[in-house]
User: What shape does this take?
Amino acid sequence: MSTILGALVMLFIISAIFAPSSVSKGAVLGMLPFAAVLAIIGLGQTLVVQQGGIDLSVAGSVSLTVVFVTKLPDQKDNRLLYAVAVAFIVSLIAGLLNGILVSRLGINPIVATLGMSSLLYAVMMIVSLGISHRTTVLLNNISSNLTLGIPNSIYFAIGAVIVTTLFLKMSVAGRRFEGIGANARAGRTAGLAVKRHQTSAYILAQLLYCLGGVLLGGILTQPTAYQGDSLVLPSVATVVLGGTSLLGGRGFPAASAVAAIFLSQLDQFVLSLKVPYAVRTLVTAMALLVGIALYSVNWGLVKKKILSALREKKVGEISHG
Assistant: This one.
């Protein structure tokens, strides 16, 4: 947590020096709703990664949710609840199918979730024909309005972080969940329902993606039908930068949320420098690589080997001298 917090502070300092417009009040208030959406989606990805998996169905799930909450209400506030209910039901089914494919049938998570994403995109095309629709006034107000000077979507993200953290760190079920993620074989030996926990991770993840998609559909007054396309890489990056190992085990929901703010501000900073979109994507990928290096490499061992090599070199120089 301290690592990503320090990185976030440094990023804001650098942004203030080289791109002051990216840290103005208006810019920050404009960035925070998108950071909240990414934080919620990142929480879902965190749960899946904790179980040693990965979920690439984020794009299809978010895109379909956005279509549901904009197309089905047809700008009528009284039909919004129905649209949101449909979105959550479909997400629940998608999560269950992902869990069955991965935990019960043993299909590789990348293959299974990519296939699910394609299926969700197919449903999205049937529902919307790829055409964007305007959001309802009610959803826009819920997602974008300010309460006490803070965008409402931030409160949804804080709530999601608190609930996820309490589940993982304060409940028996959460501790079992993390234990299975760290060592599924030991969990199976202890009589824990490993497959059920793995399936639940995909279900909970889809529900969080759906929540993020609902908010995103409200933040953007006329979102595209492919709004989730750009969220796959950032969702994984938030997990890695938050300190959760891609091999599974302990998860850090609050750190993942901070990482979402970091990535959103990083994107805004790069955008302020007026660089091409491809460069912005490259910067996100580089942030992911840095996160993997920070948390996956045993730097103590690296330091020990470097010092050992330097000592051997020094001894060799003395003996030859």
Notes: The CA atoms of residues 182 and 262 lie 27 Å apart. The mean pLDDT is 90.
